[in-house]
Amino acid sequence: MAEALSLDDLRRWLEHFADAVVSQEATLNQLDSATGDGEHGSNLSRGVAAMRRALADQSFADAQSLLSSVGMAIVNSVGGASGALYGTVFLRLSDAGAGVTELDLSRLADGFASAAAGVSELGRTTPGDKTLLDAIHPAAQALREASAAHLDLGTGTDRAALAAETGRDATAAMAARVGRGSYLGDRSLGHIDAGATSMAQLFRSLHVATASR
Amino acid sequence: MAEALSLDDLRRWLEHFADAVVSQEATLNQLDSATGDGEHGSNLSRGVAAMRRALADQSFADAQSLLSSVGMAIVNSVGGASGALYGTVFLRLSDAGAGVTELDLSRLADGFASAAAGVSELGRTTPGDKTLLDAIHPAAQALREASAAHLDLGTGTDRAALAAETGRDATAAMAARVGRGSYLGDRSLGHIDAGATSMAQLFRSLHVATASR
Amino acid sequence: MQKFMNAPDTVVADYLTGLAAAHPQLIEFRAEERIVVRATPAAAGKVGLVSGGGSGCEPLHAGYVGPGMLDAACPGEVFTSPVPAQIMAATRAADHGSGVVFIIKNFGGEVMNFGLAAEILSRQGTRIEKVLVDDDASFPPDLSRQRRGLGATVLVEKIAGAAAERGRCLDEVAAVARRTVASCRTFGVALSSCTPPRLGRPTFDLPAGHYEVGVGLGGDRGQARAALPTADRVADVLLDKIMAELGIATGSRLITMLSGLGSTPEIELFGLYGAIHDRLTRSGAVVERSLVGNYLTSLDSLGALLSVLVVDEELIDLWDQPVHTPALRWGA
Amino acid sequence: MQKFMNAPDTVVADYLTGLAAAHPQLIEFRAEERIVVRATPAAAGKVGLVSGGGSGCEPLHAGYVGPGMLDAACPGEVFTSPVPAQIMAATRAADHGSGVVFIIKNFGGEVMNFGLAAEILSRQGTRIEKVLVDDDASFPPDLSRQRRGLGATVLVEKIAGAAAERGRCLDEVAAVARRTVASCRTFGVALSSCTPPRLGRPTFDLPAGHYEVGVGLGGDRGQARAALPTADRVADVLLDKIMAELGIATGSRLITMLSGLGSTPEIELFGLYGAIHDRLTRSGAVVERSLVGNYLTSLDSLGALLSVLVVDEELIDLWDQPVHTPALRWGA
Ligand SMILES: Nc1ncnc2c1ncn2[C@@H]1O[C@H](COP(=O)(O)OP(=O)(O)O)[C@@H](O)[C@H]1O
Ligand SMILES: Nc1ncnc2c1ncn2[C@@H]1O[C@H](COP(=O)(O)OP(=O)(O)O)[C@@H](O)[C@H]1O
Ligand SMILES: [Mg+2]
Ligand SMILES: [Mg+2]
Ligand SMILES: [Mg+2]
Ligand SMILES: [Mg+2]
Asked: Considering the domain boundaries, does residue C165 fall inside one?
C-alpha cells in the first residue's frame, strides 16, 4: 500500500465526499437553518455536481491541475460564503500537487495548512469564530503532526478526520463571530456549524478513500 | 298593558337589539366567516352604535321619524350588503308609523311586510336564497296571522320571533344563491346564515321589549 | 395575530393616513368624510371618476387616485362596501360639472350602496353613470349575476381615467369603461385564507398542499378546492376559462395583469407569470402590455388573480397615457 | 409548502424568465450566463453599474436593471451570492469603456465572490470600483463589520445610477454612492420567518404574538425576540437607532423607504408608515420623498425594513432623475 494518494485516490476521495454531500443535503440545510439561511447543503450539492463534471476530464497531468480544476468548478457553481471558501481550499491545496501525481502526508499537510490560511484570510476569521475553519484548522495541524511523526497515511488521515470532527462538535459551544450566524450573537450558541460539518466530512472522506485503497 | 308599542317601547326594543348585537359581534363574525367574509357582527356593531347616537335625540314626533332616523343611521354607518338591507328594513317599517306614536300588531305586520318586500327588491332575492330574508319573511307573515287572529301583542311578537328563528335555522340546509355565500355553491350548505341570525335577534328583542313593558 | 396594527378599529384610517403621508403631492385623505381625493383637483369640465369598496383590497381603491385615474375614492371598512354618505361626498369632490362615472364591482353591498347614492344624487341633479364590473370568469356566462368585479376594476379605472383626462364626455367615458369590462376576464386562486383584523383568525382553513380555485376578493373561498399543482399547471387553470370565453387566438392583442392577493412574494408571482405569458404566446396571441404585482388584494391572502383584456388600438393608446397615482405611474 | 412553484431547482430561472417576459422592452435574461442586462445597452462612455446577491430578495436585483439604475444584475441561487463567473459576465455587459461600479452588500459571500471577480477583472484591465453597502443600524458602529447591506442598496443604485446616466466618471459615481451609504441607515423587524424552497419549511419558528427585532435579509433572525407591540410602537423601534445615528433633528431633509419583506400586506405597511412619518415630522425633519412597498424582501417573510437617507440638494436632484426599471419607474 503506497504511502501517497494517486490521482485515482484523489478521485475516489472526491467521489466519496460528493456522495456524502448529496445524501446529507437536507441535514446540512437543516443545520444552516439554525443559525443561517438554510441552504448550505444545497449550495454544496451544486458544487459537487460541478466538481463531478470537472472530474469527467481524464487528462489531468498532475495533482495540481486536478485539484485546481475542482476548485474552479466549486468557485463558479456554489456561490455564497462557502463557495468562495471551499474553492480556496482546493486551489490552495492544489499548490501542493504541482508537478506530482501523488500526494503524501507531508504534501497533504502543506496543502491543508495553506488552505486553512487561505480560509482565514479570505473569510477574515480565526479559529473559534464558529466556521468551517474550526474543522479545517485542527485537521491541518493533525496532518502536520502525523507527518512529523512519520505516521502512515491511513493513521494520519484518520487523525485529521478526528480532529476535524472534534472541531466541528466544538462549534456548538461557540458564539458565531463571522458569517450569518454572527447576526444572532449568543443566540447562535448550542448549534453545530453547518460549514464545519461539511468540512469534517471532507476529511472523513479523505480517510475512507485512503483506507480503502 | 297597552296592546301597542310606544316610542319608549321602540327605544327599549332597539336598545335590547343593540346590546345583543354588541355581545354577539364575535359570534356573528364567526358565522359570516363560514360562508362570507367574517365581518357581519362588526358591521352591525357599527350600525347599532350609530343607531344609539341617533336615538339620543329625544324629540321624535312620531314612530316614523324615530324609525327613519334609525334607518338612515344604519344606512350611513354599516355599509356592505347588510347596511343597505337593514337600513331599508327600518325605512320601510317607518312608513307604518307615520303620524302615530304607537305601533300595534296590525301596523307592525304592515311595516314588516313592506320591509320584507324592500329586502327582496333591493337584494334581488327571494326566500330560500339563504339570507336575512329567510328570517324576516316568515316573521312578517307570523305578525300578519297574529294580527288577523287578534292575538295579543306579546303572543304575536313571540310567534314572529319563533318564525324568524325557524327561518334562521332552516338556512343551514340552503345553498346560498345571493351574497358572498353564493360564490361557494353547495359548499355553503350546513352553515346558518349570519344575516338571518341577526335578523332573528331583531324579532326576539322585539318580543322581549314587548313582554317587559 | 401577526400584524402591524394599532387596533382593528383604526386599521383603515391608519392605512389612509400613511398612504397620504407617503404621497402628499398626489392625494389627500379627508378623515371626517372618509374619502380620498386628488391633492390637486382636475380642471373644470373633466368627467369625474369615483370608485370604492371594502378596504383590505389595497391598493384598491385609494391607491388609484390621481391624474389619469380616479378623482376620488371611498374606502369602506375592511371587506365592507362604503356607505352612501361617503359615496356622495366622493362624488361631490369628483364632480367638475360634467358628471361622474361610478365604477362599481359586482358585489351585493357595493351595488346596493352605490345604487342608493346614485339615486339620491341623480334626484339632486348630479349626472351619474354607473359602470358595473363583473369580469369574474369563474362563473359561467349564464350565472353572470354571480360574476364578481375583480381585476378589470384596475384596468377600467386606468382606461376610463385616460379617456376622461382627454376631455371625453360622460357617455363616452362610460362607454369605453363598459367596453373594457366586456373585453376582460379574471380568474383567481388562493393558497391561503386571510385574517381580517376583527375576526382575528383566518376566514377559513386550507389544508397544506391544497388551494382554492376560482376565488374573488374578501377572503372568499373558491368554488372548488384541489391539490396544489406546479406553477405551470396553475397557469393553465388560471387561463383555461379566460381564454375560452375571450376566444383568444392567433393575433389576439392583450393586456395582462397578474396580481398577488397580498402576501404573494414577487419571486413566485413572476415565476407564475412566465408560464402564463408562455402559454398565451404559444397560442399566437400578442401580449402588448403587462402588469405583475400587488394591484388588488385580500389582506394577507396568498394567491393570484389573472386578468386578461383584449385590446385594440384605442384601448392601448388610452392605456399608454400618463398616469400618476400611488400605485400606478408612468409617463409622469 | 404553499408556493407557486414548479420545483426548487427552477425557482430562480422561472422568476427571471417571467420578469423578462413582463418587461421585454426593459430587460433581457441571459439564461446560460445567469445574468439580467438592459434590453438596450447604455451608450458608450457611461459608467456601468452592476449588483447582485442571493435571490429571494426580489425585486433586488434584477428588478432594478434599466435606464437610470443598473446596467446588469447577477442573481445567485436563493439566499446565495452569485459566483465570480456570473459577476464577470455581468461586468462585461455593463462595461461601456469607462469602468464599472460594483454595489456589494456586506454579506460574507457577496464580499468574497465580488472580491474574487474584481481581482480577476482588474488584472484583465477592467476598471472596477467596489462600493460596500453596510447600512444596517442594528449593530453599533464599533461592530461595523457585522452591519449588513440592506435598504440602502436600492437608494444607492438609484442615485449612483442617475449620476452614471449624467455622464459622471467612475470615481464620481463611486463617490456619490459611498456618500449615500454613509448617509443611510436601515433597521428591520420580522413577524414571521420565510420558507426557502429547498428547505421546505420555515427557517425558524416564531411564537404567535412575538417578533424578531433587528433582522436583515435571507430570513435572518434578529438579535432579539420580543412581544409584538402596536404599529405605533414598532415605528419607534424602527426609528430609534436610525434617528440617533443619523442625528436627525429639526431641518434634516430625508428620503424614507419602508419595504415589506415579501408577504407584508400594503394595508399594514402604509399603516406603519403613517406612524413613522408622523414621528419624523414631529422631530422637525422634512421627508422630501418616500417609497413604501416591496423594494427588497426575504421570500415570504412578514416584516419591514425601514431605511432613512439624509439628503441634500444633489442627492434629491439625482433621486428625481428619470428611472425606468421593472420595480422603480418615474419620469419615463
Ligand atoms: N467569513 C467566513 N469565514 C469562514 N467560514 C465562513 C465565513 N462565513 C461563512 N462561513 C462558513 O460558511 C458556512 C455557510 O455556508 P453557506 O450556507 O453555503 O453560505 P452562506 O453563509 O453565504 O449562506 C457557515 O456555516 C460557515 O462555516
Ligand atoms: N342580496 C342579498 N339579499 C338579502 N340579503 C343579503 C344579500 N346579500 C347579503 N345578504 C345578507 O347579508 C348578510 C351579510 O352581511 P354583511 O356580512 O354585513 O355584508 P357583506 O355580505 O357585504 O359582507 C348575509 O348573511 C345575508 O343574510
Ligand atoms: Mg447559508
Ligand atoms: Mg360579510
Ligand atoms: Mg363584507
Ligand atoms: Mg446563503
From this structure: yes
DSSP, collapsed to helix, strand or coil, labels residue C194 as coil
Indicate which residue's Cα is closest to atom 8 of ligand 1. Answer: A179
Statement: residue C291 has pLDDT above 70: yes
My answer on whether C18 and C166 are in the same domain is: yes
User: Is the same domain home to C168 and C43?
Assistant: yes
Q: In this predicted model, what pLDDT tens digit does every residue of B16-30 receive, in sequence order?
A: 999 999 999 999 999
Inside any domain, residue D164:
yes
Taking 90 as the threshold, does the pLDDT of residue B2 lie above it?
Answer: no
CB C15 within 8 A of CB C39: no
Q: Are C152 and C48 within one domain?
A: yes
Q: pLDDT band at A2, cuts 50/70/90?
A: low
Q: Give the per-residue SS3 of chain A.
A: CCCEEEHHHHHHHHHHHHHHHHHCHHHHHHHHHHHCCCCHHHHHHHHHHHHHHHHCCCCCCCHHHHHHHHHHHHHHHHCHHHHHHHHHHHHHHHHCCCCCCEEEHHHHHHHHHHHHHHHHHHCCCCCCCCCCHHHHHHHHHHHHHHHHCCCCHHHHHHHHHHHHHHHHHHHHHCCCCCCHHHHHHHHHCCCCCHHHHHHHHHHHHHHHHHHCC
Same domain, C32 and C167: yes
| Closest residue by Cα to residue C61 from C94, C108, C25, C96 | C94
CATH assignment of the domain containing D51: 3.40.50.10440
The percent of residues above 90 in pLDDT, for chain D, comes to 96
| CA contacts within 13 A on the Cβ side of A84 | 26
Q: Using one digit for the tens of pLDDT, what is the confidence trace for A4-41?
A: 999 999 999 999 999 999 999 999 999 999 999 999 99
What is the average per-residue pLDDT within A93-113? 97
D210 CA → ligand 1 middle, Å: 28
Number of domains in chain A: 1
Q: With contact defined as beta carbons under 8 Å apart, do A5 and A210 qualify? A: yes
Q: Which range of residues forms the domain containing residue D198?
A: 184-310
3-state helix, strand, coil in chain D (%, to 5): 35, 25, 40
Cell of C257: 395583469
Cα A149 to ligand 6 centre (Å): 40
> In this structure, is residue C229 part of a structural domain?
yes
Whether D255 contacts chain C with CB within 8 A: no
Whether the CB of C56 is below 8 Å from some CB of chain D: the reply is yes
Average pLDDT, chain A: 96
| Total domain count, chain D | 2
Residue-number span of the structural domain to which A12 is assigned: 4-211
Q: Assess whether D33 and D120 both reside in one domain.
A: yes
The CATH number of the domain holding residue D245 is: 3.30.1180.20
Closest-CA residue in chain C for D15? C271
**How many contacts, defined by CB atoms under 8 Å, are there between A and D?**
107
**pLDDT per residue over C133-189, tens digit each?**
999 999 999 998 999 999 999 999 999 999 999 999 999 999 999 999 999 999 999
Q: Are residues D210 and D171 in the same domain?
A: no
Mean predicted lDDT score pLDDT of chain B: 96
Residue ranges lining ligand 2, Cβ < 6 Å = B 32, 36-37, 39-40, 43, 80-82, 85, 119, 123, 125, 131-133, 178-180, 193-196; C 79-80, 108-109
- Both D70 and D168 in a single domain? yes
The CA-atom distances, in angstroms, between D100 and each of A162, B124, B149, C32, D96 are 46, 66, 94, 53, 8
Interface contact flag, C271 D234, Cβ < 8 Å: no
D316 within a domain of the structure (yes/no): no
Query: Average of pLDDT values for C25-41?
Result: 98
The CATH number linked to B195 is: 1.25.40.340
pLDDT digits (tens, 9 = 90+) for A173-210: 999 999 989 988 888 999 999 999 999 999 999 999 99
- State whether D141 and D178 are in the same domain: yes
